[in-house]
Amino acid sequence: MKFIHTADWHLGRFFYGVHLTDDQAHVLDQLVDLVKDAQADALLVAGDIYDRAIPPVEAIALLDDVLSRIVKGLRVPVVLIAGNHDSAQRLGFGSRLLAAEQLHIVGLLPAEMRPIVLHDEHGPVFVHAIPYVEPAEARQYVADRAIDDHDAALRALLDSIRARHGLEGRNILVTHAFVAGGQESESERPLSVGGAGTVKADCLAGFDYVALGHLHRPQTVGDERIHYAGSLLKYSFSEADHIKSVNLVEMDERGRCRVQQIRLTPRRDVRCITGYLAELLQGPPDGQRLDDYLMVTLLDTGALLDAMGKLRQVYQNVLHIQRAFLMSEAPARKARADHRQVNELDLFSEFYWQMTGERLSQQHAAAFSSVLDQLRQQEAER
Question: What confidence tens digit (pLDDT) does each residue in 143-170 have?
């Protein structure tokens, strides 16, 4: 069987105020072409289809167009799950009707944990699709009050699959999680506060291929069976060195997989450049585009008048400027200077210390984390 693994499309994403729908459509056209040219037997999309629970209409239209071209036009089955950015209820609307057309959307956990069965010349391949779930949801689903973090939640759900199915034959797992040891990016929303959102790789044992979403860098974690396909595009400047791709996987009759990363070519790249203003205004070196999305680090130490306006006369998509001499290596100052690199718990801890003169206790940190997780869940359900 030949299938394509992709994830983290984040349709409807804004990047420093720029709507990325046209950029996303550009690479999704390449994905549709790959499905056709590779004669894929299935497409697996491992969550974060949209960038937020209520996506803009342009993002919905783009998803409708892409899935229609693949499922109706190419007659290729699609398995698609909800991630932590998606509204599970909204994404899963009509899923029972769409399954008849081989579009398998898993937003909420199903009433019964049954695999989606695909076929090739060697027989069935069982695809087990588990959307992103909060520990509280898993605790209620399996009636286990001991579940208190994401690792325990995913273990319980996978144990229920093993108990029912036995993982006989060839098995693929599609899920959305942060596997410990994976490399993070700035654009990923934390699954929880305080480190409780990670799962250990050993809980994924028994599957021939694990198709993961959430981490935006393409990578394997734990062993060669466990793969992140990475995000569709670069969604932060911390990803400037990433090569975005999808995984083309060939599974043989014994479940052994050969994985090939197929590079996606963006409409515009995301890059970081450094230099003195006068030098940068001379234009880029040969081979570099003028319309890429740029973060510029200026080396000038004196006053500069309208640096952004001047740079945009040459580079139309300069999105952020920083001054090198204002940046400090001191961790506390760096955290205050760039809040994007600090998680919510650290920000609250610093605020608490400034307001009270005392360090945040573990008990208070746990209470803050619990409230924040509840707010995220409420946001996802809106």
Answer: 988 998 999 999 999 999 999 888 999 9
